């Protein structure tokens, strides 16, 4: 019999950052549905709503963890607590990110510093902490959250775009460096998705219409589970020969 592709994560342990809502919440549920236990990296450990119960209803274990991505101590502690609780760490999903909007000429230093601290610095040091565990295990998978903004300019989001482009290149660097340890590193790059973070912007009829037009092939806003599906794929054995890649989930935005 041939070895058919396996898209399941049975018996694995994942840590998802920014897990409380939006993409992080959907990714956590999708990973649990695929068979993995999930540690939830949270800026506020008490702000996960019903997510832990929903994961448990899927027959998986969840572990809420305090993990502010601007705190290196909390990042390291969350990774260590995941391993202490579950005995291993197979998957890290670097989902946490922020996107303060402003014209480039008006960007404030504190917004610049915070965006880089969460999006780039947080992603790197979470990867480093997880990578050290995965090197010892001789296996692991990291999925980073880039964006179509790393490939196409979005007005008023120059700093966000810069960080997401940086994440895609960091993905390549870590994939090349850690491949010898059987660690795969990939990224996903979504377009506009219906989440609490995009709710206000997409409520503007003119902006909403412009986004729909620019999503050239499908002409619709994405749903969180459409991103989560790509994350599950990249974390699964079905993607065993994929590393250093950023998968665009943009409905055709960058195909123009």
Secondary-structure blueprint:
Layout: E1 13-17, H1 22-33, E2 37-42, H2 51-57, E3 62-66, H3 72-86, E4 91-94, H4 109-137, E5 140-145, H5 158-178, E6 183-190, H6 199-202, H7 205-214, H8 224-235, E7 246-249
Parallel strand pairs: 1-2, 1-4, 2-3, 4-5, 5-6, 6-7
Helix pairs in contact: 1-8, 3-4, 4-5
Poorly predicted runs are none
What is the count of helical runs?
8
CATH class: Alpha Beta
Order of helices and strands: EHEHEHEHEHEHHHE
Q: Tell me the major beta sheet.
A: 7 strands, parallel
Radius of gyration: 18 Å
**Strand residue percentage:** 5-15%
Q: How many domains in all?
A: 1
Report the CATH architecture.
3-Layer(aba) Sandwich
Which shape, going by the Cα principal axes? globular
Strands of the widest sheet, in order across it, are 3-2-1-4-5-6-7
Distance between the termini: 42 Å
Q: Could you state the CATH homologous superfamily?
A: NAD(P)-binding Rossmann-like Domain
Structural class: alpha/beta
Average pLDDT over all residues: 96
Number of strands: 7
CATH topology: Rossmann fold
Q: Approximately how much helix is present in the residues?
A: 40-55%
Question: Can you describe what's shown?
Answer:
By secondary structure, the chain is α/β, with parallel strands linked by helices. The chain has one domain: Rossmann fold, CATH 3.40.50.720. Helices cover 43% and strands 15% of the residues. The protein has eight helices and seven strands. The chain has helices spanning 22-33, 51-57, 72-86, 109-137, 158-178, 199-202, 205-214, 224-235; strands at residues 13-17, 37-42, 62-66, 91-94, 140-145, 183-190, 246-249. Strands 3-2-1-4-5-6-7 form a seven-stranded parallel sheet, sandwiched between helices. Strand 5 (140-145), helix 5 and strand 6 form a beta-alpha-beta unit. It is globular. It starts with 12 loop residues before the first strand and ends in a 7-residue tail after the last strand.
């Amino acid at each position: 019999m041939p070895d058919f592709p396996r898209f399941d994560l049975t018996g694995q342990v994942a840590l998802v950052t920014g897990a409380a809502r939006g993409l992080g919440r959907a990714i956590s549920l999708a990973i649990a549905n695929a068979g993995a236990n999930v540690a939830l990296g949270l800026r506020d450990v008490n702000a996960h709503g019903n997510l832990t119960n929903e994961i448990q209803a899927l027959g998986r274990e969840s572990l809420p963890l305090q993990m502010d991505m601007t705190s290196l101590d909390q990042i390291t502690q969350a990774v260590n607590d995941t391993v202490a609780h579950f005995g291993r760490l197979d998957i890290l999903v670097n989902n946490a990110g922020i996107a303060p909007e402003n014209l480039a000429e008006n960007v404030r230093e504190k917004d610049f510093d915070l965006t880089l601290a969460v999006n780039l610095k947080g992603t790197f040091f979470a990867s480093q902490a997880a990578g050290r565990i995965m090197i010892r295990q001789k296996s692991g998978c990291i999925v980073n959250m880039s964006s179509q903004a790393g490939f196409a300019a979005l007005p008023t989001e120059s700093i966000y775009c810069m960080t997401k482009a940086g994440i895609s290149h960091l993905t390549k660097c870590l994939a090349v460096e850690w491949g010898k340890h059987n660690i795969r590193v990939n990224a996903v790059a979504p377009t506009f998705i219906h989440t609490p973070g995009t709710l206000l912007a997409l409520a503007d009829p003119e902006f909403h219409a412009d986004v729909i037009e620019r999503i050239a092939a499908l002409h619709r806003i994405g749903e969180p589970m459409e991103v989560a599906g790509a994350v599950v794929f990249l974390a699964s054995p079905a993607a065993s020969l994929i590393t250093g890649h950023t998968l665009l989930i943009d409905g055709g935005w960058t195909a123009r």
